[in-house]
Write a structure and sequence with these properties.
Layout: H1 16-31, E1 34-41, H2 49-62, E2 67-71, H3 79-82, E3 91-93, E4 96-98, E5 100-101, E6 107-109, H4 132-149, E7 156-162, H5 169-176, E8 180-186, H6 190-205, E9 209-221, E10 228-229, H7 237-245, E11 249-255, H8 257-265, H9 269-272, H10 277-292
Parallel strand pairs: 1-7, 1-8, 2-6, 2-7, 8-9, 9-11
Antiparallel strand pairs: 3-4, 5-6, 9-10
Helix pairs in contact: 1-4, 2-10, 4-5
Bound molecules: adenosine-5'-diphosphate and magnesium ion (MG).
Adenosine-5'-diphosphate binds at residues 42, 45-51, 78, 216-217, 253, 255-257, 259-260, 263, 278.
């Protein structure tokens, strides 16, 4: 029976509170079927969160795990492109949206799959200009809740959540999925470290379990002469940072132009170049994350 609340219509379908309660129940029962929920996050943009999400998913799925990815970057979705599923149409089944299926049957849900065209921006229309900020936050939070609660994720070993830059989305996600484990991504630059350290503090204040830090774009091997050079000035500082912040070091991933090209082609790099230094580094990070969550089946 629909719950009644004063001031809000309680006539079945139009009872908003009852709908939210029902969605909360669906969220709970769907998430109960997901063994490990892992958020890939940073605070900083352009450091490789989406690339690492896509490739960790590929590594885990190729080990036989059931893997899903939720693209929580509602305004700048990249995951569908990186997994090559942009052309797929979403369909409905038993009141849930069937996710797109990527390589190794990775289930993908992203705002990108709901937008009609390549150049269509996500526009959150506010009732008035004045309250547009609050409105946008509220609508984004409900989009995230819907993606979690109303996608037919099924039974998953891992649900990886690719976070946008900034600190805005994470507290919402943490509330929706309290048993979330975080992976923090940085690049070896002081500018990135400054932003990322604040983000780690936020996650720690919220009590999120952090598997550790990944340093991305750490070093570059010249394809012509084979020499290894540093791309950023704070090379090697990641280890110092983890000590300062009291979290673990999950490893470093070198810059590899093929990693970027693979993302553009929609084929995860880790599936094609698993034996390369960057491929091995991604597998190492996956192993450390599995160790952290107590996953020893494969
Ligand atoms: N290790 C790497 N080597 C080469 N290119 C990379 C690497 N990591 C990320 N990139 C590229 O850098 C860009 C930003 O990465 P992306 O994963 O979108 O970052 P974020 O999600 O943090 O904004 C993308 O074009 C991606 O292909
Ligand atoms: Mg991204």
């Amino acid at each position: 029976m629909a719950r009644k609340h004063r001031g809000i219509a309680a006539d079945g379908g139009s009872d908003i509170v009852a709908q939210v309660v029902a969605q909360g129940d669906r969220l709970g029962s769907r998430m109960a079927l997901v063994r490990h929920k892992i958020a890939v996050m940073s605070g900083k943009g352009g450091v490789g969160k989406s690339s690492i999400t896509a490739n960790l998913a590929a590594v885990l799925a190729s080990q036989g795990y059931q893997v899903g990815i939720l693209d929580a970057d509602i305004n700048g979705p990249a995951i569908a492109k990186m997994l090559g599923v942009r052309a797929q149409n979403l369909s409905l089944s038993e009141n849930a949206i069937l996710p797109a299926l990527g390589p190794r049957s990775i289930k993908v849900m992203s705002m990108d799959l709901l937008l009609p065209g390549d150049k269509t921006p996500v526009i959150w229309e506010a009732p008035t200009q004045q309250n547009s900020f609050v409105w946008r936050g509220t609508i984004e939070a409900s989009a995230l809740r819907e993606f979690l609660a109303d996608t037919a994720w099924g039974e998953l070993d891992f649900l990886l959540v690719d976070l946008p830059p900034g600190t805005y989305t994470f507290p919402t996600l943490e509330q929706l999925v309290p048993d979330l484990v975080g992976i923090i991504v940085t690049i070896p630059s002081e500018v990135s470290h400054l932003v990322v350290k604040r983000f780690i503090s936020l996650a720690q204040e919220l009590g999120t379990l952090l598997a550790g830090l990944v340093e991305n774009m750490a070093g570059y091997t010249c394809p012509h002469c084979g020499k290894v050079g540093e791309l950023f000035s704070a090379a090697g500082d990641g280890e110092r940072m983890v000590a300062e912040m009291g979290i673990s070091y999950l490893g470093s991933i070198p810059f590899d132009a093929r990693l970027s090209a693979s993302a553009d082609w929609g084929i995860p790099f880790a599936l094609e170049h698993g034996g390369s230094p960057a491929g091995q580094a991604l597998a190492h990070v996956a192993a450390k994350v599995k160790e952290f969550v107590g996953e020893s089946r494969r």
